[in-house]
UniProtKB/TrEMBL annotation, chain A:
Keyword S-adenosyl-L-methionine: yes
SUPFAM superfamilies noted in UniProt: S-adenosyl-L-methionine-dependent methyltransferases
GO molecular function: tRNA (guanine(10)-N2)-methyltransferase activity; tRNA binding
Main location: cytoplasm
Gene Ontology terms describing biological process: tRNA methylation
Protein name (record): tRNA (guanine(10)-N(2))-methyltransferase
Organism, scientific name: Lachancea lanzarotensis
GO CC field: cytoplasm; tRNA (m2G10) methyltransferase complex
Residue ranges constituting the tRNA (guanine(10)-N(2))-methyltransferase TRMT11 N-terminal domain according to the UniProt record: 3-177
UniProtKB/TrEMBL annotation, chain B:
One of the GO BP terms on file: maturation of SSU-rRNA
Main location (coarse class): cytoplasm
Presence of keyword tRNA-binding: no
Matches recorded under PANTHER family: MULTIFUNCTIONAL METHYLTRANSFERASE SUBUNIT TRM112-LIKE PROTEIN, UPF0315 PROTEIN-RELATED
Cellular localization per UniProt: Cytoplasm; Nucleus
Full protein name: Multifunctional methyltransferase subunit trm112
Gene3D superfamilies: 2.20.25.10
Molecular function, one GO term: protein methyltransferase activity
Length: 437, 133
């Protein structure tokens, strides 16, 4: 037997919202949701689930949702809502189920407000047919019954004042967002951050779409200041990061990635960060990595470099240089030279690595920058073992970035591939600094 | 770097992948400075999941490099249902070793190519000179 639930979402990052809901449903093995009913333009989504337990699991981690309610009814106005609730075949049963619980009423709205014109008390009293016998408790009630009013905004700047639709439901689960995740991980309050730190909201959304799971290993090969490690730690994965730039992952004084984890009380989840070139990887090949989540360097704020000499002739024979009878390259303070590398080649390496290291059905998620004004089609890197599951675009003025999410389907998948073919004609960095002209 | 992380690291040199001696790296016990991070709380479920992923012979080998020769030769096994008091004692010891032991300074070497990697300010550096990259 399935029951109706109402999902109340936020109307932001719409290119990511469905991907998050689908990924979280899949993560918890929820199969009863009909995503064909999902409407991108609406914050409401009525679904069928087996029970409250499923609803809780599904929505508790969500960032682009506000909450999920047991659905009791809806109407164009209050009289219609009351009729819809009382005419429902489940009404008598629902009313009985929680009739002795302590409770309170809450009001939510979308797209406007009644501007104080609605008498809340009178409104609540109009629900007296519910016949609740439990005590009213404003603090920690056992049940919260919520009235959600949807308004149509008069225009972009003016909120509407007359409700378009009214919903009624019993609150089952507030989302991670509603419980304060964005405030907690706000970059402004983070002890260690840098110019390349990734904002809290989309880093948490990325971790959800990547299906970072509690107790599994998540790896970020371009860790920088650890934004994605933080998001992975929040979802209770054991996180490990690496970066070719040791200064970034080291931090300064009390401002370190470790200090961030301590502040968030996720210290145990943080395994380590390594100074390492991702393309010369030192993680043993039989170490199971469940999820790879990262924001590779775009070549703007940080250049794309790998180990090796740009001009090999200049370095010929340097391995024989000795200082005080010791090989220079074996000394503690030796700094190896690095050479420029292309974003295409780096992403190819990332896809190969993911295909080799992820378990079957494990996910690789990374961000890729794209110039918007190019006439040529954006070519998404593809590997024959990896299914491209999502391609979510975040638009900026003249450029955009995409969250690309792949699922490892193994060697028999035989999907389309373009790795190693040198996809982009021009470097993103050059396009960026030329103002995309 | 945590003691545990030694269990994840091989030599970065790609040619060494063909050898069986590129993992674990050999730690120079005399040059390694250890610290205990008591702030990391004991969580048996977390630890059990970690132990699942661990290559036990490499744990024994690195522990011995660092002067601890008390580990059993085979990976301890734990009951799936309820952990006994004895299990908890072993898990607590492993928590102290794998999670709380931090290598602040030190060096480790590939047993195949002999390249030396340093650990500085608790962060291992696995970068390579151009002739090995």
């Amino acid at each position: 037997m399935v029951k109706k639930y109402l999902v109340f979402m936020v109307q932001v990052h719409l290119n990511f919202r469905l991907a998050e809901l689908e990924s979280l449903a899949d993560l918890h093995g929820i199969k009863t949701v009909d995503f064909a009913q999902y409407d991108r333009d609406s914050p409401f989504f009525i679904v069928e689930l087996e029970n409250d337990e499923q609803a809780k699991k599904w929505i508790s981690r969500s960032i682009l949702t506000r909450a999920i309610y047991e659905y009791w009814g809806q109407g164009k106005d209050y009289p219609q809502l009351h009729a819809s609730m009382q005419n429902d075949s489940e009404f008598q049963h629902r009313k009985q189920e929680h009739c002795n619980a302590s409770f309170k009423f809450e009001f939510e709205s979308f797209g406007g407000s009644s501007s104080g014109k609605l008498d809340r008390v009178a409104c609540i009293e109009s629900f007296q047919y519910l016949d609740f016998k439990g005590p009213i408790r404003m603090k920690n009630p056992q049940q919260i019954f919520t009235v959600i009013e949807e308004y149509e905004p008069l225009n972009d700047n003016e909120a509407g004042e007359t409700p378009l639709r009214v919903f009624f439901g019993r609150e089952v689960q507030r989302s991670d967002r509603f419980c304060g995740a964005l405030e907690k991980y706000d970059l402004k309050k983070r002890p260690y951050k840098g110019t390349t730190s990734f904002e809290a909201e989309l880093s948490l959304v990325s971790a959800n779409i990547a299906q970072v799971k509690p107790g599994t290993i998540m790896y970020d090969p371009f860790a920088g200041t650890g934004s994605f490690l933080t998001a992975g730690g929040h979802y209770q994965a054991m996180v490990i990061g690496s970066d070719i730039d040791g200064r970034m992952i080291r931090g300064k004084g009390n401002q370190t990635i470790k200090a961030n984890f301590k502040k968030y009380k996720d210290s145990l989840q943080f395994l380590d960060v390594l100074t390492m070139d991702f393309t010369h990887n030192a993680l043993r090949s039989d170490l199971l990595i469940d999820t790879i989540l990262c924001d590779p360097p775009y070549g703007i704020r940080e250049s794309i470099k790998v180990l090796g000499a740009k001009d090999p002739e200049r370095f010929a024979g340097k391995e024989n240089v000795e200082i005080d009878g010791q090989k220079a390259y074996l000394m503690r303070d030796y700094i190896p030279t690095k050479k420029p590398y292309s974003l295409d080649a780096l992403l190819d390496d990332l896809l190969h690595f993911a295909a080799a290291r992820l378990p079957l059905n494990g996910r690789l998620a990374f961000w890729m920058p794209v110039a918007n004004d190019e006439d040529i089609e954006t070519i998404i890197p593809l590997h024959s073992n990896l299914e491209l599951k999502y391609n979510c675009v975040q638009e900026f003025n003249k450029w955009s970035r995409r969250l690309l999410v792949y699922i490892n389907r193994g060697p028999n998948f035989n999907g389309p591939a373009n790795v190693g073919l040198g996809r982009s004609k021009e470097k993103f960095r050059d396009r960026y600094f030329n103002g995309f002209n | 770097m945590k003691f545990l992380t030694s269990n994840f690291l091989k030599c970065s040199v790609q040619d060494c992948d063909r050898s069986n001696d590129n993992f674990p790296l050999k730690f120079d016990g005399e040059k390694c400075q250890l610290e205990q991070d008591e702030g990391l709380e004991f969580n048996p479920e977390f630890l059990l999941r970690i132990i699942d992923r661990v290559d036990w012979p490499a744990i024994v080998s690195v522990a011995s490099d660092l002067g601890n020769t008390t580990l059993p030769p085979t990976k301890p096994e734990f009951a799936n249902e309820e952990l006994s008091e004895e299990d908890m004692i072993i898990l607590r010891d492993l928590h102290t070793l794998l999670i709380q032991t931090n290598i602040v300074e030190g060096q480790m070497m590939c047993r195949n190519c002999g390249h030396i990697y340093y650990i500085k300010n608790s962060i291992p550096n696995l970068l390579l000179p151009p002739h090995l990259a």
